[in-house]
Automatic annotation (TrEMBL):
This is Ribosome assembly RNA-binding protein YhbY. The keyword Transmembrane helix does not apply. Keywords: RNA-binding. InterPro entries: RNA-binding_CRM, RNA-binding_domain, RNA-binding_YhbY, YhbY-like_sf. Pfam families: CRS1_YhbY. PANTHER family: RNA-BINDING PROTEIN YHBY.
Length: 96
């Protein structure tokens, strides 16, 4: 579980990132969760954009993705979700 200080740090790190996944009309599926897991292993911190045509609530999408990928939900800002998961092999982010 992340502390407030760690979340603040991760939010600052994520600020300049662009969303690399988009959740649209189809919602969240197994394949997307698998790809997000792989992306988190490489990058540790990613942004996911929830499109206007997505039927699910962005909070539900965030919960589904973080649980499915075993990641920490750093923040939901507008329609963007920030996820973090410590990488086993490509550790780059050192938390305060």
């Amino acid at each position: 579980m992340l502390t407030g200080k760690q979340k603040r740090y991760l939010r600052a790190q994520a600020h300049h990132l662009s969303p690399i996944f988009q959740v649209g009309k189809g919602g969240v599926n197994e394949n997307m969760v698998k790809q997000i897991q792989e992306a988190l292993e490489v990058r540790e911190l990613i942004k996911v954009s929830v499109l206007q045509n997505c039927d699910e609530d962005r909070h539900e999408v965030a919960e589904t993705l973080s649980e499915g990928a075993g990641a920490e939900l750093v923040q939901i800002i507008g329609s963007t979700i920030v996820l973090y998961k410590e990488s086993r092999e490509n550790k780059q982010i050192v938390l305060p």
